[in-house]
């Protein structure tokens, strides 16, 4: 009985894997078709059609910076600045250093009404943030792990070294590795903390009035489409936002789209 069960179970697993492989192949082909159609429509100046094709890719649960970037370009050409900024920001999250993404995002931001000045940061915090965001998160994690393993290796190696001179050299290497590990661990933790807690969104409505409280009547300031905000809290259909200049208020959920 057990042998029969194992046999049928093996057949079941083989069939399941085959179906999954076939589904992934079909999805890849479908995504490629949508992508080609989107690019062809974009080149022909049919931006609304291009938008629909690129959106089909995202609706199929496929995500890449190239799709977001092309979708952002299509929205920008179609005059939908807020949607363009939203998708450029999403592309940037997946590919921080791409010059075209950063350039087009800056270009799109020039088209919005509001100019939000960031609060000045202590230079060490700003430097740490710049370094942390200049390195891909996976690469940053890899460097941290590699440095940790190197530190363990050097520590064990020093124990077995007989020569006092080599022991001193190993000690210096251990100190250097410890400092490096501390720095990269801090940067890695900073990025993980931001990814888990920092939620940003783009205003997608032409003009919105920011309230002092959820559903409140008091208007504290006004925002226009394309502005990036940080979501700090939420209350049913309202969210508490914070601007780069420190201003705080409440907006209805449907006027924002999360990056």
What topology does this entry show?
Layout lengths: L1 H42 L3 H13 L5 H13 L3 H14 L4 H11 L13 H11 L3 H24 L3 H34 L1 E5 L3 E5 L7 E6 L3 E8 L2 E5 L5 E5 L3 E3 L1
Helix pairs in contact: 1-2, 2-3, 3-4, 4-5, 6-8, 7-8
Full CATH superfamily name of the largest domain: Tetratricopeptide repeat domain
Helicity level, as a percent range?
Answer: 55-70%
Kindly name the structural category: alpha+beta
Low-confidence stretches: 4-9
The end-to-end span amounts to 54 Å
CATH fold node name of the largest domain: Serine Threonine Protein Phosphatase 5, Tetratricopeptide repeat
What would CATH call the class of the largest domain?
Mainly Alpha
State the helix count. Answer: 8
CATH architecture of the largest domain: Alpha Horseshoe
Give the tally of structural domains.
3
Categorize the overall geometry. Answer: globular
- CA gyration radius, whole angstroms: 25 Å
Order of secondary-structure elements: HHHHHHHHEEEEEEE
- Strand content is 5-15%
What order do the strands of the largest sheet run in, or round the barrel if closed? 6-5-4-1-7
In total, the number of strands is 7
